Structure formats: structure tokens, C-alpha cells
Amino acid sequence: MSEEIEFDTAGITKKFMYVNRKAPYGTIYALEVLEAVLISAAFEQHACIVFIDDGVYQIKKGQDTDAVNMKNFSKTYGIIAMEKEDADEDEDMDMVWRIIVEKESMEARGLSTDDFVVDVEVIESSELAAIMAEQEVVISG
Amino acid sequence: MLHTINKSPFERNSLDSCLRLSVKGSPILLIEDGVLAATKETAVSDKVAVATKDHPMFVMGPDLKARGITDDSVADGITVVDYGGFVDLVVEHGTVQSWL
Amino acid sequence: MKFGILVNEGPFTHQASDSAYHFVKAAIEKGHQVMRVFFYYDGVNNANKLSAPQSDDRNLVKLWGELGAEHNVDLVVCIAAALRRGIVEENLADGFRISGLGQLTEVGIAADRLVVFGD
Q: Which residues of C fall within a CB distance of 8 Å from A2?
């Protein structure tokens, strides 16, 4: 591998937002953006992980992928929830993580918070628009 | 925040989701197949006309040309830009949210 | 201004790589710095030196490599996404390097703007 190039990021904390709008398994975006979220924990950045449109299905309970022979990565969202708890509890860590579901997307698909593998904040679109407008780095999958 | 939309409104719900989740006054740039939302007299023209009142709207000229859409087919109030204009919009408006 | 770019799709199948390329060129022409282009998901296929488009069509793999070299843009291919898709050192095009997903977060922090091109 060629030499690593690193940028100076010391002391900078930004608001990252990861936008998930696609259902899992039909495409790989859900899995690979999850991997990006986990890596960002190492950088101690703020993170909003947002599920909109079909993205709400990414965190749905009861995913059984045996018959399609694909990796079931829904348990990985549990790790995200743990990262969030650690961030919430650690007073020294200035890292705010939020896991957000858009209310309209959830309800349009007949889902409720009981259907999800993690605890989420359910936020309606105009309030979520305002949260999105505050973000500094938006990664869409 | 600058919003970009790269998919056709006839193919995907990206335009609808962007309009639902973008703060009024934030600019929207249509790129790639997203430029199809900018043309006059389509099934989405009314929706886009409302959006144009709420948001500064821009559309990528090179993508229009590639798809055989002339500037005079572009709906009123939507400004045609090139890649340089795209860069300027990003510089001016801060964080970019790409609605894919 | 300093830019970071994320390219989510491979060459040809989607316009994302072309759009990103033209954006980067325009940014450089305007005097901005493009620190890093990070290739993720199928975007890693932009680094496959075995890509052989028809002779009357643009060769995106070469174009990216030349742009990176000429203007000191760090072209990074995500190792995990690359392994999935068979992009390894042996078929890595000139001008690209393989590295970890942390390089995406890093440029998000270090740059003034991150722009995502995808499907």
C-alpha cells in the first residue's frame, strides 16, 4: 500500500449526518454506510444517523436473511446504540449522537417505534429539516 | 445548506423528500437526471413552481444539453448554471446535502 | 476553499463519477483545493486499471489518475469496499491508493466542504 496521507484534524469536532433512505438488502448502501458510522466513532465527532423514506426498514426487527443468503447486519445497529449511550454517559467525551426516524416516513410505511431494533427519536419533517440544516458534513448512501 | 437532486422526479421520490425536508430559502440544484424536474409543462411542474417560490432553484446546463433540453424549456425562476456555478453554490451555501 | 469529495458509484453505469470529475476540475480551475476524493461502494471501480472503454469514449480511470497527479489530489479507495469488488494493488490504476474508511471521516473533518456524488 502506498504511503498514508493524513490531514490535521486535531481539536475539530463537526456535526456529521448520515442519511439513510434506502431499504436494506435490495442495495448495499445500508450496510456500507453503517460501516462509515462506526468508523466515525473513533474520531469522536457528533453524529446524527437519520432514517428517512425506505431507510426506516434498515432498523426493522425480525430480519431473517437465511433464504436470501445475505449477511444480516441489523444487529450492528445495536453497536451504534451502545456508542450513543457511551457518548451520552461520558462527561469527558464531547460527542453527541442521535438516532432519528422521520415520523412521516415511519407512518407512511405502517411502522411504529415498536418495530425497530434500537431506540430512536421520532421527529416530524419540519423539525428534522431544521436539524439537517445545522449539519456540517452530510454523507448520503 | 445546498441541496442537490440527481434523480428524475418520475423515477424516484428524491425531489419530494428534499422538498419535505429542506428549510425554506435553502437553495436546490438539479443535476444529472434531476434536471428533468426543471422542464415546463410536466406532471411535476406545479410542484416545482411552488418549490421555486420557497427556494432559489438551479439546474445544471450541461446535463440539460446532454438530454436535449433547451434553456427555453426550463421553467421560470430556475437559473441554469455550469460546473463552475455548481462550485460557487457550494462555496456560498455551506454544507451540501445530496438527495440520491 | 478546501473540498473533500465522496464518489459512491463506479464509472459508466452511473453519471456520479463523471459529475464528480467535472466538479473537481471546475473547483481547481477556480483556485480551490481538492484535498481528497474518496471512492466508496462501487466507486472503488473507478480505480480498476483493467477498465477498457471504447476508444471513442472517455476513460474515467485514466482521467481521474491524471487529474489526481497533476493537481495533487489524494485519490483514495476504501479497502473494505475494494476487497468486496476485487480491487487490489495488482489491478489498482496509477494515481490511486487503497486505505481505510477513516480517510473519509478525516477529510470530512479537515475540508471546508464535502460533496457526495452517487446514485
A: 97
Q: Mean pLDDT throughout C34-62?
A: 97
In a domain, A45, yes or no: yes
Q: Which of residues 11-30 of B touch A (CB under 8 A)?
A: 13, 17, 20-23, 26
pTM of the model: 0.97
Q: Which domain holds residue A120?
A: 15-61+71-140
* Chain-chain contact of C26 with B98 (C-beta, under 8 angstroms): no
Residue A82 lies in a domain: yes
Q: Measure CB to CB from residue A29 to each of C41, C80, C110 and give the nearest one.
A: C41
Domain formed by C2-117, architecture: 3-Layer(aba) Sandwich (3.40)
Q: Is A112 left (phi over 0), alpha (psi -120 to 50) or beta?
A: beta
Residue from the list C15, C29, C113 with its beta carbon closest to the beta carbon of B90? C113
* Residue where the block lists cell 476524493: C37
Q: Tell me: the pLDDT tens digits for B12-38?
A: 999 999 999 999 999 999 999 999 999
Q: Residue C2 pairs with which residues in a beta bridge? A: C33
Task: State how many domains chain A has.
Answer: 1
Task: For residue C78, indicate whether it is catalytic.
Answer: yes
ipTM over 0.95: yes
Domain segments of chain C: what residues? 2-117
> Which residue in chain A is spatially nearest to B26 when comparing CA positions?
A133
